[in-house]
Amino acid sequence: MKAAAMKTIHVKDAVGSVLCHDITRIVPGGDKGPVFRKGHIVREEDIPTLLEVGKEHLYVYEPQEGVLHENEAARRIAAATAGANITLSEPKEGRINYSASCMGLLRVDVPTLTRINSLGEITLATLHSMQQVRPGQNLAGTRVVPLLIEESKIVALEQLASRPVVEVLPLQKFKVGIVTTGSEVYTGRIKDAFGPVLRDKFARLECTVMDQVFTSDDVEMTSSAISGFIRQGADMVVVTGGMSVDPDDKTPASIRAAGAQVVSYGAPVYPGAMFLLGYVPTAHGRVPVLGLPGCVMYYKASIFELVVPRLLAGLEVTAGDIAGMGHGGFCSGCGECRYPVCPFGK
Predict the structure, then answer these.
(1) Does an H or E element contain 234, and which?
(2) Which residues neighbour 313 within 8 Å (Cβ) at sequence distance 6 or greater?
(3) Which of the residues 66, 73, 125, 313 could staple to 169 if both were Cys, CB 3.0 to 4.6 A apart?
């Protein structure tokens, strides 16, 4: 990289120049602090302020061909790496933040992110991929390490980022059918507690619960209820209860009997190990059917929060995806749940 020349110029000739050092203002009996930071690009409106703090001459960088200021470098990095539904901040001290412009699922191209951060003198940091995010939430930030950087490094990054590195996938508003199994609920011996929890969870995701159907521990009755929701146009069906290995628990068999192709029965997620995901083929695609274990009813965050947002984002969840949830899929049981701030579920 060509060394950028540092020179002294009169403040009135400094417009467009890059400051080499902080400019400090001292108020007698008051505060002392920088009025302009190192790297600031001097504007016409800054001249009176500089003169007020006693700066008639400044140390500035002389622009060099093939060298970028940190703010311009950050703008180009952000433009190359930010995808759909991302809002970019203005540079502040060389850094640009990325925020979500809608509720959705954050997706990060982690291999490309790693290659970018391996270029040297470039930094791009993000939240964990595949987590639900809210509008306005900060997701990532980027800046270069030096005040000035070779343009060739930014060009190399732009060539690496052939597709978005950070993006937000909007969540679709599914119509959901709930099938609650178990003779004890079906006969009224105990009151159902799962339905209200699921209605609240889906309402937070802006999904519509079509209805809740109760069935006994009978494969034909439960599979018929699942199929009925699909015929009525459900985008997803969730089945609660009966997910253990107890001989009376027939939910997995009922989901298969409804025509579901089971992707995974069991997940390396605590809470949520006794989870089932299958897809029922239809004329218009495939409808996901989820067998939810009882822990979904008791925990604020569980396998539900890891899988359902992916499905609402239009992603096909595979057996490999579920196997990969083991990394970060352990809840330490720290007391008051702070999901999604908690690392559980990434």
Answers:
(1) none
(2) 104, 105, 107, 169, 170, 171, 172
(3) 313
Instruction: Say if CB 148 and CB 4 are below 8 A apart.
Output: yes
Class of domain 67-169: alpha beta
> pLDDT tens digits, residue range 246-283?
555 689 999 999 999 999 999 999 999 999 999 999 99
Sheet of 261-265, strand order? 208-215, 175-181, 236-240, 285-292, 276-282, 261-265
The answer to whether 171 touches 232, Cβ cutoff 8 Å, is: no
- Distance (Å, whole) CA 310 – CA 47: 52
Could you state, in order of their start, the residue ranges of all structural domains in the chain?
A: 6-61, 67-169, 175-325
The letter for the amino acid at 251 is T
Task: Please state which CATH class domain 175-325 belongs to.
Answer: alpha beta
Asked if pLDDT for residue 195 goes beyond 60, the answer is: yes
Classify strands 148-150 and 67-69 as parallel, antiparallel or unpaired.
antiparallel
Specify the pLDDT at position 244.
Answer: 64
Identify how many contiguous H helices and E strands the chain contains and give both numbers: 11, 20
Name the superfamily (CATH) of residues 6-61: Molybdopterin biosynthesis moea protein, domain 2 (3.90.105.10)
Predicted local confidence at residue 109, as pLDDT: 97
Identify each DSSP E strand in 191-298 by its residue range: 208-215, 236-240, 261-265, 276-282, 285-292
CA distance 303 to 173: 20
